[in-house]
Specification:
The structure is a single chain. The chain has 533 residues and is mostly beta strands. Helix content is 7%, strand content 44%. The strands form eight sheets. A six-stranded mixed β-sheet has the order 6-5-8-3-1-12, with no helix packed on it. Strands 2, 9, 13, 36, 37 and 38 form a six-stranded mixed β-sheet that branches. Strands 22, 23, 24, 25, 26 and 27 form a six-stranded antiparallel β-sheet that branches. α1 packs antiparallel against α2.
């Protein structure tokens, strides 16, 4: 009887008052409640379902009630036509809608989800997930923002309480997803821009499992001819086949790095080949050993393109040019290299010897005909990224073991000597993961528009919070206020940045919503949060 009276009182309040105060009072008297939560991650073209938000429902009536509809708000969405459908799921698993129960669906951008018949809500708590599919024609500069205004139930109208804030989610591309093209795992992306403006993304194609070398791994490449809006099908550009009579699983090649020669237009992709090391790992014990012999030490490989990545040369082995015999392992650092103002090509590199892991660079002064290696830049770290600073020095930013802060070193003589930078092990947090460091020069290389961009999972423990940070003073400071959060959930974490055009930068990263995610970010947005000079 008490429950019936409370419900009647609630309906009287709805009929008699339209003020916010009355609505608040109503929510306090209704026997059910709803809490809406939004998280930061993109909605993705090419993905069947992209999460928008969750609603936690609590039914304290002591009996089953019925949910008739949810009224949605699309305020803040750039173009409602970007949405192909919106679906509501009842959660049964911790992640993703695939195993969840579909409750209702609307096509396009209608305002309400209506349940026919009504959905029964038992006593207690449950979680619902709202997800969408994005049209392939949706523009990457657009945003999607959806909220729940109200829920119509047999016990009254409920307005969800918003925990935190509603997010205007970016539209991105699900560049590579688990199981796509029969591939188990895509990893280790590296993004680059050719002289003609074509975007190239190379990555590991791990056919059978997620494990690193040694394994059945090839280097794949995706190309975009329209500033990242669409991408051509994967090309396999490095595949060692069944060399030496060994199966594909004992001829894996991966961990790609890219260098673009702006003078000639030639593109170089480097990778590490491991032969006949079944069950081994290249970074451990005898997974790669001192020497030069194929089958004993991992090999430093190279392929070239002179037509913007449409075709590639046969794979070359440059191990004898760049590796020291005493090193157990020497490999490209997975990311984009640079070309110095004097034309020298530079690729960050990594290795291990009897003293442990180290970082350094390789270089070419003859447009990629030959390559040489600088002395080690830093011991204790490995994967590294490079930029040329205004004074001509090279800054190397390094994955730094278990120290949870990035290593940073400087060379003023093309790697013949190195010194610690003042930000070494101080400013840039990491969970032991690869990162991306990129100089983005603006029109006329104006000082305020020449940004150093740094991307990584900004956390000390987990590969969460994929973030871009900015410096306008050549990496001397990285203000906390100048951060752009892209994906707060956990992924494999590796990012790679590259220019799209004068007004946009692109990033590919291993995200929470797809193995490889591409997003395009405007210069205007970055400058709006850049530190003042």
């Amino acid at each position: 009887m008490k429950i019936a009276c409370r419900t009647l009182f609630a309906w009287m309040l709805i009929a008699c008052s339209s003020s916010n105060a009355a609505d608040d009072a109503l929510e306090q008297t209704l026997p059910i409640s709803a809490v809406e939560r939004h998280e930061v991650y993109p909605v993705l073209i090419g993905k069947k379902e992209s999460p928008l938000f969750t609603i936690d429902l609590r039914n304290d009536t002591g009996r089953e009630i019925l949910i008739h509809s949810l009224r949605l708000s699309f305020k803040g969405t750039t173009d409602r036509n970007d949405l192909e459908s919106v679906r509501l799921f009842r959660r049964h698993t911790a992640r993703g809608p695939r195993a969840d129960e579909l409750l209702s669906e609307i096509q396009g951008n209608n305002a309400s989800l209506v349940f026919a018949p009504p959905v029964a809500l038992a006593t207690g708590r449950e979680r619902w997930l709202l997800a969408c599919s994005v049209r392939k024609e949706a523009l990457l500069d657009h945003r999607v923002r959806v909220e729940c205004d109200s829920i119509e139930t047999s016990a009254g109208t409920v307005r969800p309480r918003l925990e935190g804030s509603a997010i205007a989610q970016r539209i991105g591309i699900a560049l590579r997803q688990a199981g796509q093209d029969g591939v188990h795992t895509f990893r280790i992306p590296v993004l680059a821009t050719t002289r003609a403006g074509t975007l190239l993304c190379a990555y590991d194609v791990r056919w059978k499992s997620s494990r690193d070398l040694q394994g059945d791994i090839d280097v794949g490449l995706s190309r975009s001819l329209d500033r990242g809006q669409t991408w051509l099908p994967t090309q396999i550009i490095m595949d060692m086949g069944e060399y030496g009579g060994r199966p594909q699983a004992e001829n894996g090649i991966g961990d790609p790095g890219i260098v673009v020669d702006e003078t000639t237009g030639e593109v170089f992709v480097f990778a590490l080949w491991v032969h006949a090391k079944s069950g081994k790992h290249q970074w451990r014990a005898d997974g790669s050993e001192p020497g030069f012999e194929i089958g004993k030490t991992a090999q430093f490989m190279l392929t070239r393109s002179i037509d913007d990545g449409a075709t590639w040369s046969p794979v070359e082995n440059i191990t004898l040019q760049v590796k020291k015999e005493s090193w157990a392992l020497f490999a490209p650092s997975p990311n984009q290299g640079i070309q110095l103002r004097d034309g020298t090509l530079v690729l960050p590199a990594q290795g291990r010897d009897a003293d442990g892991p180290f970082a350094t660079i390789i270089m070419s002064r003859d447009h990629g005909k030959t390559w040489t290696t600088a002395p080690r830049a830093y011991s204790g770290g490995n994967e590294c990224q490079a930029v040329e600073r205004r004074d001509g020095s090279i800054m190397l930013n390094i994955r730094n073991g278990e120290k949870k802060r990035r290593g940073v070193v400087i060379t003023k003589d093309l790697g013949q000597s190195w010194e610690l930078h003042p930000t070494h092990e101080k400013d840039l947090l990491e969970p032991t993961c690869n990162a991306s460091l990129y100089r983005w020069n603006g029109p006329n290389d104006a000082s305020v528009s020449s940004l150093l961009l740094f991307a990584n999972p900004a956390d000390a423990k987990r590969r969460v919070r994929q973030t871009i940070r900015m410096s306008v003073d050549e990496g001397e400071t990285w203000p906390l206020a100048s951060r752009l959060l892209l994906d707060e959930e956990e992924g494999a974490g590796y990012p790679s940045l590259s220019r799209v055009d004068d007004g946009h930068v692109g990033i590919v990263y291993e995200g929470s919503q797809s193995h490889l995610v591409f997003e395009r970010i405007s210069r205007q947005e970055l400058l709006s949060i850049a530190p003042a000079r």
